[in-house]
Amino acid sequence: MSTVYVLVEHDGSQVSPVTAELITAARPLGEVTAVVVGVPGVTAALAPELAAAGATTIVAAEAADVAERLILPQVDALHTLAATTPGPIVVAADATGNEIAGRLAARLASGVLCDVVGINPDRTATQSVFGDQIQVSAAVGGACPIYSVRPGAVEAAPVAGACTLSTLAVPAATAKDVTVTGFTPAVRGSRPDLPAAKVVIAAGRGIGSAEDMALAEELADALGGAVGVTRDIVDLDYYDGAYQIGQTGVTVSPDLYIGLGVSGAIQHTSGMQTAKKIVVINNDEDAPIFQIADLGVVGDLHEVVPALIAEINARK
Amino acid sequence: MPAIVVLVKHVPDTWSQKTLEADHTLDRVNVDSVIDEINEFAMEQALQLRDAHPDAGYRVIALTMGPAGADETLRKALAMGADDAVHVLDDALAGSDLLGTTWALTNAINTVAATEEVALIVAGNASSDGAMGALPGILAEYRQIPALTGVRSVTLDGQTVTAVRDTAAGRHELTAQLPAIVSVTDKAPKPRFPNFKGLMAAKKHEITVLDTAAIGVAAGQVGLAHAATAVTASTERPARTAGDVIGGADGVAAAAQVADYLAAEKFL
What we know:
heterodimer, A: alpha/beta, Rossmann fold, 2 domains, nine-stranded mixed β-sheet, 26% helix, B: Rossmann fold, two-stranded antiparallel ribbon
């Protein structure tokens, strides 16, 4: 039975939700070897959850200096494993994961497919590109094809079983490493993470002011959703760039997207056009966003939104 | 004079819709192409580093691999202030995958390095068309040098480069020794607009054009036929259709209708 390697995403003490998705996505390719790269002791804490998610083997690639390094420990560990026992490699598709995937492709002389939304037993994969405008089937060659999987694209389906644990020595840092001299973890907000949020309230230029972003926030809170913004809002300094949805920024695929004062330029829509239901409020009836909206309101969001928040709260 | 090489790419305008050709490669013909916006941030970062260290005598060299029209993007880089520009142009490169592209670029950089030391390579964190964000890391593998990727700020102090990287996980402070690769995000310093003098000079500046033979790359290492990945089929998503549009002159009434809709769709 062939082996497929999955790079475990974790924060040092907990397995990140995407890992279960990766293990599920990888299973058509073989028995899953979950690889944990971290400081000594991390794997022991994560092992039970990994076994429950469906890993057949867990490899602990631990070293004290991993905290001062970035990306290369993960690349070194997966490279060593796959060079010894060739097999496909599955990682999460984010900036770090995509870099790891590319570096492995170079080292293992294999192809790499980034941001796939599904992997087939014959090693082909599906990608959804150009703002989810086009779905493609892709083939990838080499003894160790690498896939980075879009978080949220594959539903995690845990399959618990027996699991063996092994260890792998992580090669020491070299002059090719960058040194991490400091790390400040991101502050987790109280709202859902944007990329995975089921409900997204997005504000565009029509919101009018930084203060009025509070309207978007209140509506998001009334519906238990996340707040996003267009490029314009970030350029105007009304909100942090981390919340930008679009060509450069986050791609969202929520069940419900409500756009407030969003015109619908492709810069933005390419990041949200697969939302199941799109509701928009904009006082410009010619705004392109109305062409993709399931429900559109031509009106002043500064009047409609407070009233909407009141209606929602009244119906709770 | 040490060089700072800036990777730039001629890409379909992000304000227009991208499409695929019959062979599933990106249509680069029937679309307006421009310098990838992130490359303007890379150019700006390189120019600021050059100008902050006049004693080092850095020369900024813009490099692209692309079809004939890609020289427009090099002219934009020159207009911003690049000292020189190199265009890797060869039909054999069409359809190259990530590894083939990076292989061609690293060999092109080697031709620059033959006459001047390449101290730093600056790239955007990801292109807007390929969007993999993996090239800078692979370049680091081929060149066996460190890469500080996805950064919002870069400083040089002699041979030491430091940078700040922001990801969803948090903020990393990074340091490495030159020669190194840096990739910047759009949180890096805002790009300057070229001035009239720059635009005029860019028009006349001679761009070095290199084919695969000139960079020492064999046809069998690049191009669509030798790619490690292939798109075998593509389908366009059906267009969304517009739903109801209601007038919002009466904000309260409109809000009630929206709430009814949300309730009907089980969001309340």
